Amino acid sequence: MDGVAVGVCGTDKEIVAGDYGWAPPGEDRLILGHESLGRVREAPQGSGFAAGDLVVGVVRRPDPEPCGACAHGEFDMCRNGRYTERGIKERHGYASQAWTVESEYAVRLDPGLESVGMLLEPTTVVAKAWEQVERVGGRAWFEPRRALVTGAGPLGLLARCWRAARPGRPRTRPGEPGAEAGPGRGARRDVPQRGHRRGDLALRPDVVIEATGAGSLVFASMAGTATYGVVCLTGVSPAGRKLSVDAGSINRDLVLENDVVVGSVNANLRHYHQGAEALAKADRAWLERMITRRVPLERAAEAFTPRDDDIKVAITLT
Ligand code: BGC
Predict the structure, then answer these.
(1) Is the Cβ atom of 221 under 6 angstroms away from ligand 1?
(2) 22 backbone dihedrals φ, ψ, rounded to 5°
(3) pLDDT, mean of residues 15-38
(4) Fewest beta carbons less than 10 Å away: which of 28, 288, 292, 306?
């Protein structure tokens, strides 16, 4: 594969800071890059891929045992924690000018997605999160009318876009975060990054996709849903932040309302295929606006210094 680009996310920054991530066994370095995009240089016969195809490599691989979930292709739900992840956990990533991937872990993208295809990986995370909400909600009658997405980073923006593109979506009010047409310079200003408008939770959403990982928002979401609410947590937070909460009333709320709080990480092949289909249909200009900086490989370090108007920063590899 000729590397085209990789996206940079909070996990990459944590790895660079030495707070997360594992080099492959026996090595002391990890090649970064889990939000991949490449172009096939050479593909084995019968693999279904041909030179020139635009491709994304899947992040996770099943644990070697494998556990029951991994054995069923649900490596995103691995039970024993021995899964590996390219660019994150014990496998080199895709931030190289040339890389290889097993054909069963390669996903073809619409050829028109060359400038934005590195958004597939975060899109798969969102696809899985919404699937979790639908499955959890589906345990009884469920017709969610209102959803709140917290966070104005790529996950939050893609989570709104994902839902807006699906039929039977919960309603968004005009002017509500996420009701805007898409990300642009103004998008971050519309949605507070730290904290949220109290009013958003006063609306008592049926669904919350929490994409900040900020403790106060996590607990406010749990306490603020409508009856039979589903809160899906997708933000990975650093450990060690203490917060004082009224555990009694949160528990009471969850019990008396049949509420659910579900965590969601990573994605399996089904979500990659759903994501690839969704990106192919999405408004290309909207996606382009989400990539606020493109940094060439020689200056890759710059991608890790945040700037105020960053949404998604990509490192270009060509
Ligand atoms: C990635 C996931 C991964 C998780 C934990 C996230 O940034 O998008 O694919 O499972 O980090 O390592």
Answers:
(1) no
(2) -140, 130
(3) 97
(4) 28
